[in-house]
Amino acid sequence: MTFRSDERGVTVQVGTVLLFATLVVAMSLYQATAIPSQNEGVEFRHNERVQGQMQDVRNAVLRTGATGTSQSTSVTLGTQYPGHVLFVNPPPASGTLRTTELGTLSVENLTAIDPETKEYFDESRHSFSTRALVYAPNYDQYGNAPDTVYENSVVYNRGRDGNATLTDQQLIQGKRITLVTLAGTLSRSRSGAISIDPRALSPSTETRTIAVRTNGSDPVIRVPTTLDAEKWKDLLAGQEYIRSVDPGTGDSVVVTLKGQENGTNVTYDLRMAKVGVGSGTTETEATYITNVSPKNASVDGTTTLVAEVRDEYNNPVSGVTVTRTDTGETETTDERGRVGFEYDAPESGTGTVTLSIGDSSREQVSFEIHTGEGTTSPSGSYYDVEWRPDEFDGSGVSDCNGYHACVNVSEGTTVSLPVSVTADDGPVTSATVDYAVNNSTLATITANDGTTLDGNDEATLQVGNERNGTITVYAASGDDVDSATIRLMKPPNSSNNGSGGGGPTNLSYVVTDNTDISENRVHYEVSYDVSNAGSSFDYMRVNFTNLDEPALTQTNVTNDTARGIIRYDAGYGQGDTYNITIQVVATNGSVLHSASVVDQADSTDPDGSGSLGGESSPALAGRWITDESDNEDGGVYQASYNVTNRSTFGHIEIEFRNIDHDWATQTKSSNDPRGRVFYSLGGADGDEYEIIFRIYDTSGVKVDEVSVSDDSDGVEPAGNEKLRNDSSPTLTNVAVDDRSSPYNSSFEVEYDVSDPDGTFGSVEVEFNDQTADLSRENHTRTTPSGTVQLDEYADHGNSFEIIVRVYDESGALVDEQRVYDTGDGTDP
Fold first, then answer.
1. How far apart are alpha carbons 345 and 350 in whole angstroms?
2. Strand 364-371's sheet: what is its strand order?
């Protein structure tokens, strides 16, 4: 029997092989194209977050330099790729954060007005070395990712195609010059997060602002930088006292300021600080000594001569031995850099006392004390310039111990300040007199004539804000300068939160609990305002008593201003109970007023917390909170803000308080009155958050607080408002091209922004896959027109929310448009 061959089974086998081969090819193509594209999206979003974290580092450095208090922050150097069952990912991406040499920051043609400070800070060039902090990513796919750099108060991206700034500058604001140098060695490479702990290398918790004046020549600031001069011109645009910004030698720019205005030498306020990161940092040393109490005074009996030792940055130095040369007596400077020596004045005549820290003139300060009739002023100048404090006149002016005058201030208080100029004991006519004040945020001074008649002239002091404080006014003619110290006292204000009550002295205070739960670091801030204390006021004292861990108790934390802030930090103790006692101390050592608060260090403010702001105080004028949380990253926020009444603005803090997970609570700060901060610490999707905006004035006092509640669910909270005005960038076109195929969803977004005044900053396009449980993809562009495509794979038919946001040059959100579409190939 013969059988026929049968080959029907071969078709099934061939089909199976072809199907398997097709699957292998498809998986290979997916591994070769889709996986890298998804990973590039992960890397891009991580890079955006690091840019925000580098802005947090910048704010922490500036805040540390301004307050002396360290503020920790973190930078996530690398990222993890999402897992796949059948596909392979490269190892986690990493990055490097390191300090690099930058060069020497210098200032010249500025001279301190105070005679003692002038012996150190004269018109010659003063140079300070500084460094940069650079984040360099090491991604697998995002090959043209920029390095992110902090230097000279600015954060910017340094890429192959140029540099793009991410923040404003704080170097020059009007007549205020702020020089914050960076020191130390840091080099860390990893894929996880690292903590950055800036430290103030001037050992005091206070910084000093000194009045400096030109000699007629234009002041010059040489800034070492890898940003080009054109970028610095953009950063410094709008600063009326800048004459030019030019390229310097090597990697530097030369900023030239105005030396004169309307024929008068310009006076600037100069603040300097040195901040360290990493290792290899050294604290500054004593450079000069200056007087705090008047150098020339008439007394009857015993007086205390007070001096202050400062470093090269003009900040106080504690622990320095000061010698009284006539007796050999020594004292050590306190935490404010000050010493006091008792002096018993003779019955009549003039006594001279010299306090010394070294042999040079700038390391010595002399006091001339006059008693009895017919005493003479110090000799040694051709002209003899003297204020006449007994004739200081104006509403609220009174005599007070330790000051030339006290002023009970209110809005618009005006004080007349007469001065005499003599030579060889005779009056001088037609002598030019220049006037200055060391703190222009508290008061301004103007000459009535500016030239003497029969040896007399007069200046007008204008106190423009209801604030307590101490100012020094200067009169200069020929080669002599005289100074007078004036105490400003705010009248009682019963509307302030936390009033102590019960006595003639009024104490208003606010206790803020900024404890960092994630780092187990306790941090309290006590803002206070003392009024109606008169000349009896000496200083504020706060005791922080830990009732659970006595070793963490800190007493006698002081501040010598009647309005200000006192801070407490402990490296652990989160959850402990504190008894915080706030005391107003008189010149005789008695307590004029006292109040106490008991609180648990849990980042929740005590009951009754508020602010000490008035109608003219800085205040939050608007905010926009973007909730970008999802089930992959947890809580992710951006907070745009705008502050009004900026003349006394100090800084803003924004706390992202996670109610469900304490470790995810984090506080961001900024010295810019308008901008945006980023939060990405996480927690779980759906956690409850309280987002708190706290605004502080230049004295450090909290003057406004706004709280917003939100769930981290990807839905923005109520009350958002675009921070725009008539000249802000505006979206003029958003077009969505649905390019979806039968297998996936795909979109291309075209946008156009109108930018009439050149204030455009960036555009952010967010693809929110609502079908895939709030899976998000974000893209940022720095051009006012362009296109953006969805990179990550999404199933066909998924529902998308596409959001286009516009930010101005400060980073604040000014416009937004949303488009909703289904990935089906049909345009919305």
1. 8
2. 296-298, 364-371, 349-356, 321-324, 330-332
Q: Is the pLDDT of residue 589 over 90?
A: no
Q: Residue 496: is its pLDDT beyond 60?
A: no
Residue 411 has pLDDT above 70, yes or no: no
Nearest to 575 by CA among 544, 554, 602: 602
pLDDT at position 709, please?
A: 92
Chain centroid to Cα 485, Å, comes to 28
Instruction: Check if the beta carbon of residue 490 is closer than 8 Å to that of residue 612.
Output: no
Q: CB-based contacts of 11: which residues, under 8 Å, 6+ apart?
A: none
pLDDT, residue 482, reads 86
For residues 508 and 492, what is the distance between their CA atoms, to the nearest angstrom? 9
DSSP state of 89: -
CA–CA separation, 486 and 399 (whole Å) = 10
**Is pLDDT at 613 greater than 70 in this prediction?**
yes
pLDDT band at 402 (very low <50, low <70, confident <90, very high): low
505 phi/psi in degrees, rounded to 5: -90, 130
The model's confidence at residue 658, banded by pLDDT at 50, 70 and 90, is confident
Displacement of CA 237 from its chain's centroid (Å): 20
Task: Examine the pLDDT at 506 and tell me if it is beyond 90.
Answer: no
What predicted TM-score, i.e. pTM, was given to this entire model? Answer: 0.56
Give just the sign of the alpha carbon dihedral 168, 172, 175, 179.
Answer: positive
* 46: three-class secondary structure by DSSP: helix
For the stretch 777-782, contacts whose Cβ atoms lie closer than 8 Å and that sit 24 or more positions apart, written own/partner, are 777/41, 777/45, 778/44, 778/45, 778/48, 778/628, 779/44, 780/48, 782/164
User: What dihedral angle (degrees, nearest 10) is formed by the CA atoms of 165, 78, 134, 637?
Assistant: 40
Model confidence band, residue 289 (pLDDT cutoffs 50, 70, 90): very high
Q: List, in order, residues 6 or more apart from 164 with CB less than 8 Å away.
A: 146, 156, 157, 782
Which pairing describes strands 296-298 and 364-371: parallel, antiparallel, or unpaired?
parallel
Residue 136 burial (CB count, 10 A): 17
In sequence order, the β-bridge partners of residue 423 are 426
Helix (H) or strand (E) holding 285: none
Q: At which residue do the structure tokens 């340094």 appear?
A: 158
- AA identity, residue 123: E
Distance (Å, whole) CA 623 – CA 654:
11
- Tokens representing residue 538 in the block: 């000496």
Angle, CA 599 vertex, CA 595 and CA 602 arms, to 5°: 150
Q: Which residues pair with 137 in a beta bridge?
A: 95
CA 334 to chain centre: 26
SS3 512: strand
- CA 61, CA 776: separation in Å to the nearest integer? 32
pLDDT per residue as tens digits for the range 334-375: 888 889 998 887 777 778 899 999 988 889 999 888 775 433
Top-confidence range, 271-285, 388-402, 772-786? 271-285
Q: How far is CA 235 from CA 104, 223, 632, in A?
A: 20, 13, 37
Determine contact, residues 481/442, Cβ cutoff 8 Å. no
Alpha helices in 430-563 (DSSP H): none
Concatenate the DSSP letters of all residues of 187-221 into one string.
EEEESSEEEE--EESSSSS---EEEEE--SSPPEE
Check whether 424 has a pLDDT greater than 50.
yes
Of 147, 155, 184, nearest to 54 by C-alpha is 155
Residue found by looking up tokens 């794979």 in the block: 793
Residue type for position 443: A
Q: Alpha carbon of 447 to those of 111, 407, 436: distances in Å?
A: 20, 19, 9
